[in-house]
Amino acid sequence: MPAKRPAPRLVLIDEAHMNDAQRALLEAIRSGPRGKSITPRGPFAVWLHAPEFGHLAQALGGHCRYRTGLPPRLSEFAILCTARLWRAQYEWFAHAPMAEKAGVKTKTIAALRAGREPTSAPKDERAIHAFIRELYKTNRVSDRVYKRVHAFLGDAAMVELVGILGYYVMISMTLNVFRMMPPADAELAFAESK
Asked: What is the CATH number of domain 72-177?
């Protein structure tokens, strides 16, 4: 029996009923790197309720997703680590296929989903996983863990990695608070809290 899905806390706004500010936000999202076919789901559906905030958030997201110095494989891996730690259903649904397409191994994705250490992942992914785990657990990163990741990312990409993590924490919070779920026919990655 499929897991019961909580109902969204915000009304999903139909494109035909959007006001000018909402239409402008949707156009900004579609005219960026995500493409014209993007539908107002997930965090975008939430931001339509606060279009001014949505413009800023989607612009930062476009940079975090498409224009950092991290290779897509490492960026998507970091996004999945964050989605798992926050148990953000929609984020996992959206990014697990992107991570696999970017080169994250199926076995690594399965380990992350189960909450296990991705021991068979490449060295750079394991280093980023340790960085993320330590940062989220202690709110700090030790010199040893920092140096491990800095050795292959360098200064600019380290700044961007922290930015990606912060952005996707915001996304995860948004999705979880407003109960934005994957489509009804998609399997939920994590057990829902009662």
From this structure: 1.20.1290.10
